[in-house]
Structure formats: C-alpha cells, structure tokens
Amino acid sequence: MAYVTWSFEALERFCDDVFKAFGFSEEESAQVSDVLLTADLYGIESHGMQRMVRYHKGIEKGQIHLDAKPEVVFETPVSAVVDGHSGMGQLISIYAMSKAIEKAEKAGVGIVSVRNSNHYGIAGYYAQMASNSGLIGFSCTNSEAIMVPTFGRTAMLGSNPIAIAVPADPYPFLFDASTTVVTRGKLEMYNKMGKPLPQGWALDESGAPSDEAPRVLSNIVGKNGGGIMPLGGATEQLGSHKGYGYGMVAEIFSSILSMGVTSDQCCTFPDKTGICHGFMAINPAAFGDPEQIKAHFSEYLEKLRESAKAEGAERIYTHGQKEVLAQEDRRKNGIPVNDGTMIELLDLCSYLNLDFAEYFPGYEPPAEFAGFSGNY
Amino acid sequence: MAYVTWSFEALERFCDDVFKAFGFSEEESAQVSDVLLTADLYGIESHGMQRMVRYHKGIEKGQIHLDAKPEVVFETPVSAVVDGHSGMGQLISIYAMSKAIEKAEKAGVGIVSVRNSNHYGIAGYYAQMASNSGLIGFSCTNSEAIMVPTFGRTAMLGSNPIAIAVPADPYPFLFDASTTVVTRGKLEMYNKMGKPLPQGWALDESGAPSDEAPRVLSNIVGKNGGGIMPLGGATEQLGSHKGYGYGMVAEIFSSILSMGVTSDQCCTFPDKTGICHGFMAINPAAFGDPEQIKAHFSEYLEKLRESAKAEGAERIYTHGQKEVLAQEDRRKNGIPVNDGTMIELLDLCSYLNLDFAEYFPGYEPPAEFAGFSGNY
C-alpha cells in the first residue's frame, strides 16, 4: 500500500474540523485531535488517523455518546472513580488524568479509575501529561478481549497496554506497550503482506500456536477462540504468565477498582463498549528534590544509551527516545498516511459534508479505489 | 541432586536459631525466617533455605550490617524514603512496607522507596503483607546487574522483580516475577543438569544468543559481558523492549526515587550492596466499597480459571494459585531441601556453634560430601 505525506498542520486542521462536524466543541475537538496526531507524530500509525474510522463507526453505532460528560462518582484527596457515561475515550481520559495530576500536585499521589469509557488512543499520551507537569505518570486501559491467558484457548483479556512516563533530560522516559506480545495491528500488517506470522505471536481456535494471520484474525472477529499470546508467549518457558500478569495489572487499575466491565465483556454491548482506564500521577517532590531525582535518573538513562552494543547493533534506546526522533522527523518532513486510510477519510468527508479536496489538495485515489464513494 | 524433606516447624526453629546466633533479636529472627520459609512453602526454592549461605557471606564480608536500623530520611502523609544503612534486607523491607500500609490505611495510598538495603528475598512477600491487610500491595527491587538491555551486550539492570497482590476470594491474586525472562537460578539448574539453555534466555559476551549455561554463568561472575535477556527476548519481535521497560519501572520505584544505587553499580562495593526497593500500598476503600471490589475481582478470576483450556492443557491458573497449592502440600508433607543446601547448613552450624544433629536428626551427607567440614 502506498503512502502520501501531509504536514502536521494540515492533518490537525482536518481532524479538528471532523470532530467539530461530529458535534464536539472547539476545545473537545482539539483534545481528541491532539491525542490522535501525537500517535502519528510518534510513528504509531495504528493509533493515529487510521483510527478515525473506528471512532466514526462507534458514534454511528451508538457506542460512543457525543454529549456524555464524565462524572466523578467517588473521590478522596488521592483518588477518584470516574464514570465516562460512554463518551469519547480521549475526552474522558484527559479529564481523569488531569484530576490525577491535580491530586498529585496537592497530595503527592493521585489515582483515578475510569469505567464506561471508550477506546482512548495511545496509553502514553496520558502518562506524558503527568511527565509534562514534572510528575511520574501511569496509564493503562482494558479493551476488547484478544489476549489468551496462559494454557487457555479463549481471549479473556484485552491488549491491555500500560504506559509510564518519568521526567528526564534531554527527554522524558516514556514506556508504552501492550501486555500482549504484539497488537492486532501487527497481525493485520502481516495479513495484508500475505506473510506467515512469526512464531510466538498468535494462537488458533484450539489454543495451539498458529502462523496463519487470516485464520487468527477471522477467529478474533467471529469470537471463535484463539487470539494473541501474552508478552512471553504461550508457555511458561519464556514467561507467558508474566505478560498475562501485567495484563491483569491493567485490568485491576481500570475495570476492577472502578467496578467496570472486564475485558472479557468489553465491546459486547449494543450501546457502549464499557472500556475502562486507570491513571496515576506521583509527585517526585514527595520523595525529595525533584531536580536531583531527575538528574539521577537522566544520568542512568545516559549510561544505558552509552553502554556496549551487541555485535551488529547500532544503538541502545531508552524508552521514549524513538518517539522523540520520530516526532522531530515528522514535524519537519510530514506524516505519511496510507491510501487505505485516505479512502476512509474521503468517505468520512462525504458523511460529514466536508470538502475533502480542500484538506487534501491534489490527492488522487489509486486505481483500485477509483470512483469509490460508498461506505467503507 | 537428592532431596531430603523436613517439616516447616523444624526448618523454622533452625532458621530462627541461626539468625539469633548471628545476633538478631528474637523478633528480627522470626521476621527473616518467615520471609525465607514463605519462599520454600511457595515452592520458590531459590529464595528459601538455599539463600542462607548468601546472607552468611554478606554478613561475613561486611555488606550486611547486623546492627543497622532503617531510617526515614524523607516523609509525607503518602510517601517516605527509607535509608536501610545496609541492614538485613528483609527487616528493612518489612519496616518499609509496614509504613506504606499505615499510610494507605490513613491516607488511601502509601509509597515508600528504599535505598542502601540488601537482598530482600521474594518480592511477593511484601506485596502480600498489604493484601493480608485488605490492601493492594506493590513491591519491587533492583539487584546485581544481570539483564542486558535490548541491543546491548552488558548487563545494566538486575533481575528486577515486580510483585503485585490484590485481595480476592478464595485466595488473593499474587503476581511476582522477575522482569528478565528467567532468573539466574534457572541458568544454574540447567548448568547442574548439563543441559543446553532454551532459546531466548541468555546472551554471550558479544551480545549474541547463547545456549551455553557454563559460559554465560562464568561471564556473569567475571563481569565479562552478556547475561540474561529481558522478558520478551533479545529483539523487538517478541517484545524485548517491554521486559526492559518493566525492569526500568522497578528501577524507578527503588533506586531512582530514593536517590539510591542503580543496578549497574549494585554489589560492586566492599561494604554494602546498595540494593534498593520500592513499595506501594493502595486502599481499595479509596475507590468504593472494598467488599464489592473484592467480589467483582474474584468473579473475574473465577471466570479466567474456568475459561476454555488449550488442547492438552489441564488448568488455567490465576496468579497466586500455584503458591496456595504448594503451601498446602508443603505444610502437610514437608519442605524438600537438596543435599547441596544441607551441606551449607552443616557448615553454617559449625560456624555458629549450633548442633546440626539436633535440628536435622539422622541426616547423613551423601558419599561425595563425606567428611566435609571446611568452608563452602
């Protein structure tokens, strides 16, 4: 699939206008756009513009409620439970993480557990809201079941990402990863390329390892069993129970503390997905001088980057470094969007009565999409 | 190597007497023994009686200071930094986790970061102190460098375990795992058996995968490079950067927040190891009715255990279940201790002037150890 490159500013104007056209306020639209485009800037294509179709479908189906406002249903000086009332996941999450940050600034720690939300984009965005405020940030979410627990054959947990951001120089530490070995997006990529899946990624409907992307994906859609392995694979030899354990940690902070919907039930309702999130902010000032702690951490990160490389390896990364490099490149050289996504955006424009050509001047769909105007 | 089985009570009496003979008080000795024997009850042999030789050596070398008392050097209602002054790791950790629990009971959350401690045994013990009090517990530690970061060839992080315990029925959730794919103990087992290491565990001195246990172990001891892979292996394909990321999380809560010694430097000093820990307790009452939350979680755990098994698999475990089963068995049928460890205990008795035969009546060392009385 071919890619076409657009400037960050062009995509931002488009995203803003799309969400305003859906009925969100100027501020709300800017918030959602920022989460999506941060993913594209970081090179996490699967969570950027490519997701707009899913949000569109969610709104159309009635699983995302445009006018819902998040509500605090329980609160202490260090904690809160938020009911998202099935609003837009990004708006609920920015609200909830802001609350955690506020609490951490006053009380040292803030933990907010959220129920009845929707897909929130990249977990790291919210963790980084905290690190941008000089705090340690933690963010996690559950999601539609796709992870098969160790020795199982049915997906019972989501991809359940966990993100942690910590202030550091010259850039923050930002760890953001699904607790499955890979995400569904990777399987879809292999499927598009017609390539067999690497060993250690996926399970078929009997719970046996499978390298067949089409079979695994159609089983996931049809809920016929199988799915993706936890980080660590399918057996204890490489630590399957550990990835499964971290998946549970995401569940505990999201669906359990909030009394929300666990991953095995997420996205099975007609009028909501039930997706839950967990957020935490920790103030380093509760442990000493934040500047000293930051310098101490930055020094260790530098030692890691400078440590001896494996034969043939060019670089040891610390977490968040790749995102910084990608962002520099994409702000300067633009963000590549693939034709499949462009076609979805064309369709979205016709649905919302927006002038596609105004946002994406000169774009011509490739031959196989010529004349496309129907629903994707 | 053969095993000989002793009752929990016999081993407890022995451990208590050993630590009293070293000079610890009755209460302190009982605390250390409980941490060690809990590991043996859970079937985590590497962290039980087998470790006594390491504590003995630490005391002899002067890295463990018998009379050191942990000191709070920074404190808020939700947090503290403790300097362990190189005392016994278990005593410092019980002190620090008790503080976190106290804070969580009053303020909803307690986070305690510890510097200048020593090896603390199983991470899960401290997490479970919290769950025994109806709280969510988190415990992590750094340790002597053994984990090679993704694309590296030098160990820069420890095995850095993370444990999380959460109240549930009929038994608590207890996740306790190194952030390396396996621990050094596993490599030593393969070494003893003369078997090649499974793929995806270890790296040689050039940073290339290796199945040679003797080579990897001697490199670790000699600090010649190489070591153990992060959970997720050596490349990003199976998520190496994720295990490396969780290793960093353990580092952040232990050595970073406490301004302590990072793993790359741990155990390189003559008069201390510098090992650091992190503890957190979270009160479910800060999120609603603890009994409702517990019931909600227990129901999900039950669903996981009852979900469809992979072909050929008998059981899906939830975390902590294996430990419960092992404990039931070992309290009833005794705890197996291998001959190598027995010989170390014999030597320990001669060092401390304890009567070995009184604790282990009828034990005869196997032929290869006949007449053994020197230093191990």
Describe the structure.
2 copies of one chain form a homodimer. With 376 residues, chain A is an alpha+beta fold. Chain A folds into 3 domains: 3-61 and 334-369, Hypothetical Oxidoreductase Yiak, Chain: A, domain 1 (Orthogonal Bundle); 68-180 and 236-333, Malate/L-lactate/L-sulpholactate dehydrogenase, NADPH binding domain (Ribosomal Protein S8, Chain: A, domain 1), CATH 3.30.1370; 182-228, Wheat Germ Agglutinin (Isolectin 2), domain 1 (2-Layer Sandwich), CATH 3.30.60. Helix content of chain A is 41%, strand content 15%. Chain A contains 12 helices and 12 strands. Chain A has helices at residues 8-22, 26-41, 52-61, 89-107, 123-132, 184-193, 213-222, 240-256, 290-306, 321-333, 339-352, 356-359; strands at residues 3-6, 71-76, 79-83, 109-117, 136-141, 162-166, 173-177, 202-203, 209-210, 227-228, 275-282, 335-338. Chain A has a 7-stranded mixed sheet with strand order 2-3-4-11-5-6-7. A 3-stranded antiparallel sheet of chain A has the order 9-8-10, with helices on one face. In chain A, helix 1 crosses helix 2 (26-41) and helix 4 (89-107) runs parallel beside helix 5. The longest helix of chain A has 19 residues, at 89-107. Chain A is globular, with a radius of gyration of 21 Å. In chain A, 55% of the residues are buried. At the A-B interface, strand 4, strand 7, helix 8 and helix 9 of A face strand 4, strand 7, helix 8 and helix 9 of B.
Largest interface: A-B, 83 and 83 residues
Q: Main sheet of chain A?
A: 7 strands, mixed
Total number of domains of chain A: 3
Count the helices of chain A. How many? Answer: 12
Number of strands of chain A: 12
Q: Which second-level CATH architecture of the largest domain in chain A applies?
A: 2-Layer Sandwich
Radius of gyration of chain A: 21 Å
The CATH class of the largest domain in chain A is Alpha Beta
Kindly name the structural category of chain A: alpha+beta
Shape call of chain A: globular
- The quaternary organization reads as homodimer
In CATH terms, the superfamily of the largest domain in chain A is Malate/L-lactate/L-sulpholactate dehydrogenase, NADPH binding domain
Q: Please provide the ordered H/E string of secondary-structure elements of chain A.
A: EHHHEEHEHEEEHEEHEHEHHEHH
What fold name goes in the CATH topology slot of the largest domain in chain A? Ribosomal Protein S8, Chain: A, domain 1
Strand order, largest beta sheet of chain A = 2-3-4-11-5-6-7
Mean pLDDT of chain A: 95
Distance between the termini of chain A: 17 Å
How much helical structure, as a percent, in the residues of chain A? 40-55%
Which percent band covers the strand fraction of chain A? Answer: 15-25%
